[in-house]
Amino acid sequence: MADPDTTPICQPSAGVHIVLPGYYSPSSTGLLDPSTSDGRVIFFLPWQRMTVAGTTDAPVSLTFHPSPNDVDIEFILREIRNYLSSDVTVRRGDVMSAWSGLRPLVRDPNKKDTKSLARNHVIEVSKSGLVTIAGGKWTTYRHMAEETVDKVIEVANLQPIRKCVTAGLLLEGAHNWDPLLHIRLVQDYGIDED
C-alpha cells in the first residue's frame, strides 16, 4: 500500500437473491422497479424455468462465505407482493433457494448507506504513482482492465506498440460459437431443448 494511512476505498455490500417457482413470472418477461419502499431496486425475472428475485443492499464486513438472512429474504418477498395479484400469496415456503454475494462498492465518506454508493469503478493514482482500481461489476471487467492499463501507460509514460485489443477479443470458449448451436445439439445428439 502506497500510504498506510489511507482510508479503505471499498465498502462491501451484500446482495441477496431468491429463487421461486416459475409461475411467479411469465416465461419471457421480467420486472424491475428502481424505487422500492425504501429506495432500493427490486426485480423478478424468469430463469431456468424458475423465477429469480432480488435484490438487497446492506453494508457488511468482508467475509469469504456470505449467506442470506431471513430479514433480506422477507424484504424481497414483501416487495414482490406489491406486483402480484391479490389472489396470489407468496410465502417463505415458496423460496426454493437463496444466496448472497458481495459487491465492492466505492466508499463515499459522506454517505452512510450502500444504496447510494457508486456501482462503477474508480481509478486513482497515488502521489507515488501507484495505480489503484476499485469497485466495478463483473459485467464490465474487460472495460475496467482496459481503462486501468491505459492509465498505467499514461502514468508511467510508456509507449505501447499497439492500441488495446481487449474489446475485440472473444471470451474463453467463444471461438467457433454458433448462434444455432442449441439446434445442432438437439438434432445431432437428441439432447432435450430445455
Provide a concise account of the structure shown.
This protein is α+β, with helices and mostly antiparallel strands.
What does this protein look like?
The protein is an alpha+beta fold and 194 residues long. It folds into 2 domains: 10-106, D-Amino Acid Oxidase, subunit A, domain 2 (D-Amino Acid Oxidase, Chain A, domain 2, 2-Layer Sandwich), CATH 3.30.9; 120-194, no CATH class. The protein is 19% helix and 25% strand. The chain is built from 3 helices and 8 strands; from the N terminus they run E-E-E-E-E-H-E-E-E-H-H. It has helices at residues 70-81, 141-155, 181-189, and strands spanning 10-21, 31-33, 42-47, 50-54, 58-59, 97-106, 121-125, 131-135. Strands 1, 2, 3, 4, 5 and 6 form a 6-stranded antiparallel sheet that branches. A two-stranded antiparallel ribbon has the order 7-8. A hairpin with a 2-residue loop joins strand 3 and strand 4 (50-54). The radius of gyration is 22 Å and the shape is flat. The termini are far apart.
Query: What is the count of β-strands?
Result: 8
CATH class of the largest domain: Alpha Beta
Shape: flat
Spell the H/E element sequence.
Answer: EEEEEHEEEHH
Number of domains: 2
Q: State the secondary-structure class.
A: alpha+beta
- Quaternary state of this entry equals single chain
Overall pLDDT, averaged? Answer: 87
* Architecture (CATH level 2) name of the largest domain: 2-Layer Sandwich
Rg for CA atoms: 22 Å
Low-confidence stretches: none
Count every helix, treating DSSP H or I runs of 4 or more residues as helices. Answer: 3
What is the rounded distance between the termini?
Answer: 49 Å
CATH superfamily of the largest domain: D-Amino Acid Oxidase, subunit A, domain 2
How would a textbook summarize the main sheet? 6 strands, antiparallel
CATH topology of the largest domain: D-Amino Acid Oxidase, Chain A, domain 2
Task: Report helical residue fraction.
Answer: 10-25%
Strand content: 15-25%
